[in-house]
Amino acid sequence: MLRVLLTSVALVSVCGAASAAGVVIDAGNARPPISKYIYGQFIEHLGRCIYGGIWAEMLEDRKFFYAAGSEESPWKADGQVTMAKDNPYSGEQAPEVRGSIAQGKLALRKGKEYVGRVVVSGTGAVVVRLVWGPNKEDAQEIALPAVTADYVKTPLRFTAGGDTDDGRIEIAGEGPFRVGAVSLMPADNVKGMRADTLALLKELDSPVYRWPGGNFVSGYDWRDGLGDPDRRPTRKNPAWQGIEPNDFGIDEFMVFCREIGTEAYITVNSGRGDVAMAIEELEYANGAADTPQGKRRAAAGHPEPYAVKFWSVGNEMYGDWQLGHMPLEKYIEKHNTFAEAMRAKDPSITIIAVGATGPWSEGMLAGAAEHMDMLSEHFYCQSVPDLAAHVRQMTDNVRGKAEAQRKYWETIPALKDKRIAIALDEWNYWPHDSIRRSPK
Are 269 and 217 in contact (CB under 8 A)? Predict the structure, then answer.
């Protein structure tokens, strides 16, 4: 055994005597190496994490979930605007316009290019304007090709002639014409994502990203995020405020992971979702191109399987705030059903189960240990006035969860020959009154 004495350089005089502090290092007492996944990231369809953060889309409600001109809508109407329910392009309605609709509060920079598209049907001449100032010349106008009874998608490209944080896009014509969808992004976007955000995330160099949640996942149908983004349905965000345009689905998430050089970690919906939904999602991600869902992925331009390793069955199902929440005993059964089916579909995956230190984790480990590889744990901390105590919350919480897990290893019979590790896949400081959940 190698024993090394490191002598302190600080000599402290006590009553005329000098003393030296020392540290003994036992190099033969090595522990397992620290996981390369020690500092992963978690992204969710919440606030501006995805839209306005990672995703480069500048327009809100771009497929008109809300009636243009209504209080809820970011679109202002000038002239006669009604919401047509027959033959919408996406969702359940499309604005039929005689006059114009416009969306403001756009940040534009002089000389910067912006690209997009608009889907229009109807009659008459239609123009799209990007406006950056109060004068007539403070705008660029694009005249669309002849409008027809069928929806036609037209690309847009603008160059802003001035700086503003209150620019706007206008779609105008004598009509009547209908707008099915419209999009606007900075031209330097990277496959639909913000170039500046990606640059920062590459610097962060996190090895794994968990998606799509979080509370969001328990009401999310991953299939809504497939196909032509302009035809994907807009839904009410199932867990948080606002709406979900489904522009950032599983394919976009995987492109995001490839762009920043990270591994994907996907959570399946075990709240309001069912096993069939989870199996289809797993096959879409990892199945060969000749499987039913693999064919669907290949048709979307991704013939090679994504080979996603990490899969979580649900999120925080112990909480009554979670859509689909149920008692522990029932959820153990549900988890095991999901895990068995997912393992049968792809034996190579790592399955993470929902944990919560205490009775829930104990129950999951006792009743589902053979159907998991890791146990998810979460914690959030509030502000504490004392700085040292504020910072210590993090280490204290991590230590507490690790100590509890080691105790479970020794006391739960199902773990006698199996060591279930922790996946600490949500933790942070969070003043809970900063974001309110939508009603269930």
Answer: yes
CB 397 within 8 A of CB 379: yes
Contact 427, 379 (CB under 8 A): yes
Catalytic-residue membership of 426: yes
Which one, of 310, 250, 256, lies nearest residue 277 by Cα? 250
Given the residues 316, 377, 403, 410, select the one marked as catalytic: 316
Q: Which residues pair with 236 in a beta bridge?
A: 243
The residue to which tokens 């290949």 are assigned: 298
Q: How is residue 124 annotated by DSSP? A: S
57 is catalytic: no
CA distances from 400 to 41, 397, 403 (A): 21, 5, 5
pLDDT tens, residue by residue, 295-326: 999 999 999 999 999 999 999 999 999 999 99
In the beta sheet, which residues pair with residue 185?
115
On whether the CB atoms of residues 249 and 226 are closer than 8 A, the answer is yes
- pLDDT tens for each residue of 318-373: 999 999 999 999 999 999 999 999 999 999 999 999 999 999 999 999 999 999 99
* pLDDT tens-place string over residues 169-227: 999 999 899 999 999 999 999 999 999 999 999 999 999 999 999 999 999 999 999 99
Q: Residue 438, Cβ neighbours under 10 Å: how many?
A: 13
Q: Report the alpha-carbon distance of residue 336 to residue 11 in Å, rounded.
A: 61
Closest CA to 45 of 208, 230, 245, 190: 245
The one catalytic residue in 170, 244, 362, 426 is 426
pTM for the whole structure:
0.92
Q: How many CA atoms lie within 13 A of 167 on its CB side?
A: 25
Q: Measured over all CA atoms, what is the biggest interatomic distance in the chain, rounded to whole angstroms?
A: 99
- Asked if 40 and 265 count as a contact pair (C-beta separation under 8 A), the reply is yes
* Half-sphere exposure at residue 35, Cβ-oriented, CA atoms within 13 angstroms: 11
Q: Compute the distance between CA of residue 167 and CA of residue 93 in angstroms, rounded to an integer.
A: 26
**Contact 426/42 with Cβ under 8 angstroms?**
yes
In order, the DSSP letters of 343-356 are HHH-TTPEEEEE--
